[in-house]
């Protein structure tokens, strides 16, 4: 009995617990603490704020949303006092911005850093979530908000022999904070998704030799990054409301809208002119050149063929160009990268490309990588292999709901929930940009702000009505799962089943399209309507 009393005394109690101190966690803390007046504690495994921008410090790490829209928009004063320097900010600048936000709103005093959450269990008798950390601390609160991010669980592939490698290996999502000097080294890079496309040009400038191991060829559009003019900076500050409205109106949370033209209604000559102009503008705006690029396979093919033609024009060696242009999925059906000099990198004498479809990796040796046809001597290996996306950060924590129901069991066949906000059987557990929400298909700060605002309003409603819990119903979750799948099937997204949108990059992970492809504007309207109807599809008790 004495031991039980001691354990109880050591429990720290709050009104709400938040896990994660990136974009989501910082804003959630601000809303719950400063707007609702709740006692809130944020638990963060890193040594400071930033979330994915704290960990991803690899060469070339850069935002692929335009800076004036990749930020919080809830505060006009915050927009007016912060100045971005580039169209696409690099990792240090984004991290600097988040540090500025933490300082400005005095958020650090309620964040506990270097604290890794190991388990979270719902105590139905006391209507509390009991959270335990790897260090043995215990926290309790009625509400638990998981702000762990969609891309925070690094995926290091299980390649035989990795432990035998005598050199150093790195994952881009766990990059040493002191940086890595590749000068004079033979470097092998595995992975050519968004991260690999960003980092390869920078590594190539430093390394004696860079060998890129490509399993899946990828599209990429030039970023056309540039310093922001003083005139544009003034425009952003003076037009905050207009820019915010545009971001809320657009399907993907960006400050620009898709064209109302159809690619199939244009002549080949007109399409060429439109795509050339979009290529010169660069960035994700290319995807909006025509309204039906993501909706129609035939329209998509016109964009895909244009990009493949560009790759063949840029890369001087015809054999290398063909491997890079041998893309087996529609444009935009996987995350669409943007780059600075990626394809040009393969024109360097110290860069070579290995086609893993033709010659797969057999193992890592003491001195490098062995494929089915030869050995590649290496001093360092860089894994640009992405993340166990969306579900991974949640499933790495032992989360148990009502009657000890494990989240791992509920999601063993794939994620299941309502709006990406809640899971049946897990009262008062909220997931910010969880599976089933627009999340990774958007400019992330936009769905983050919408989710945090919705969660905050929901908790305010519960407390105002004297209600203790809110929980998604099984029927509503099943209907939403079906809707997410149906909407995805109206696009070209399912034509890339090997995408991480489906979890295909993780061996054994269930194949299920995880984000909501119906657009941020439509999703926002659905969530607002559900709240207005007294939280239809939820049980309030």
Please provide a brief summary of the model.
With 541 residues, the protein is α/β, with parallel strands linked by helices. Helices cover 33% and strands 16% of the residues.
Pick out its properties.
541 residues; alpha/beta; FAD/NAD(P)-binding domain; five-stranded mixed beta sheet; 17 helices; 33% helix; globular; disordered N terminus
Topology, element by element:
Blueprint: H1 2-9, E1 12-13, E2 16-19, H2 23-35, E3 40-43, H3 52-55, H4 76-81, H5 91-104, E4 111-112, E5 117-123, E6 128-133, E7 138-141, E8 143-146, E9 168-171, E10 186-190, H6 194-206, E11 209-214, E12 221-222, H7 230-238, H8 240-249, H9 268-281, H10 297-314, H11 318-325, E13 338-339, H12 342-345, E14 351-355, E15 361-364, E16 368-371, E17 375-377, E18 380-383, H13 392-395, E19 398-400, H14 407-410, E20 429-431, H15 445-465, E21 470-472, H16 474-488, H17 520-532, E22 538-540
Helix pairs in contact: 2-15, 10-11, 15-17
């Amino acid at each position: 009995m004495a031991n039980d009393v001691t354990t109880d005394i050591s429990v720290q109690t709050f009104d709400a617990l938040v896990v994660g101190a990136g974009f989501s966690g910082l804003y959630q803390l601000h809303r719950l603490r400063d707007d609702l007046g709740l006692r809130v504690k944020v638990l963060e495994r890193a040594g400071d704020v930033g979330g994915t921008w704290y960990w991803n410090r690899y060469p070339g790490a850069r935002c692929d949303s335009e800076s004036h829209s990749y930020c919080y928009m809830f505060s006009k004063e915050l927009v007016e006092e912060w100045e971005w320097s580039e169209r696409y900010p690099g990792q240090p600048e984004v991290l600097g911005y988040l540090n500025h936000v933490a300082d400005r709103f005095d958020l650090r005093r309620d964040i506990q850093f270097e604290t890794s959450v190991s388990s979270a269990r719902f105590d139905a008798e006391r209507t509390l979530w009991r959270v335990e950390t790897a260090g043995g601390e215990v926290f309790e609160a009625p509400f638990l908000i998981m702000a762990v991010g969609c891309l925070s669980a690094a995926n290091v592939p299980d390649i035989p022999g990795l432990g035998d490698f005598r050199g150093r290996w790195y994952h881009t999502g766990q990059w040493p904070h002191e940086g890595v000097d590749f000068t004079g080294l033979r470097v092998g890079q595995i992975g050519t998704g968004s991260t690999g496309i960003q980092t390869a040009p920078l590594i190539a400038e430093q390394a004696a030799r860079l060998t890129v191991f490509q399993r899946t060829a990828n599209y990429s559009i030039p970023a056309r990054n540039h310093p922001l003019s003083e005139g544009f900076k003034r425009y952003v500050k003076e037009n905050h409301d207009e820019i915010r409205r545009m971001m809320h109106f657009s399907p993907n949370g960006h400050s620009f809208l898709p064209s109302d033209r159809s690619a199939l209604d244009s002549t080949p000559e007109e399409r060429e002119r439109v795509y050339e102009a979009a290529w010169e503008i660069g960035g994700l705006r290319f995807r909006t050149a025509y309204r039906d690029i993501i909706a129609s396979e035939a329209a998509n093919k016109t964009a895909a063929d244009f990009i493949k033609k560009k790759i063949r024009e840029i890369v001087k060696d015809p054999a290398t160009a063909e491997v890079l242009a041998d893309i087996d999925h529609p444009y935009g059906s996987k995350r669409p990268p943007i780059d600075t000099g990626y394809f040009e990198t393969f024109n360097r004498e110290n860069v070579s490309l290995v086609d893993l479809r033709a010659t797969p990796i057999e193992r890592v040796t003491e001195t490098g990588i062995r494929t089915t046809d030869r050995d590649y001597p290496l001093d360092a290996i860089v894994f640009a292999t992405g993340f166990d996306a969306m579900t991974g950060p949640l499933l790495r924590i032992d989360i148990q709901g009502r009657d000890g129901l494990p989240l791992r069991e509920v999601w063993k066949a794939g994620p299941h929930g309502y709006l990406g906000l809640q899971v049946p059987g897990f009262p008062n557990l909220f997931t910010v940009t969880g599976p089933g929400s627009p999340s990774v298909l958007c400019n992330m700060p936009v769905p983050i702000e919408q989710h945090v605002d919705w969660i905050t309003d929901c908790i305010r409603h519960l407390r105002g009505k004297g209600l203790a819990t809110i929980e998604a119903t099984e029927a509503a979750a099943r209907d939403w799962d079906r809707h997410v799948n149906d909407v995805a099937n109206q696009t070209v997204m399912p034509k890339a089943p090997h995408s991480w949108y489906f979890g295909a990059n993780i061996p054994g992970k269930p194949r299920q399209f995880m984000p909501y492809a119906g657009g941020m504007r439509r999703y926002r309207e659905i969530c607002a309507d559900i709240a207005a109807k007294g939280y239809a599809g939820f049980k309030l008790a």
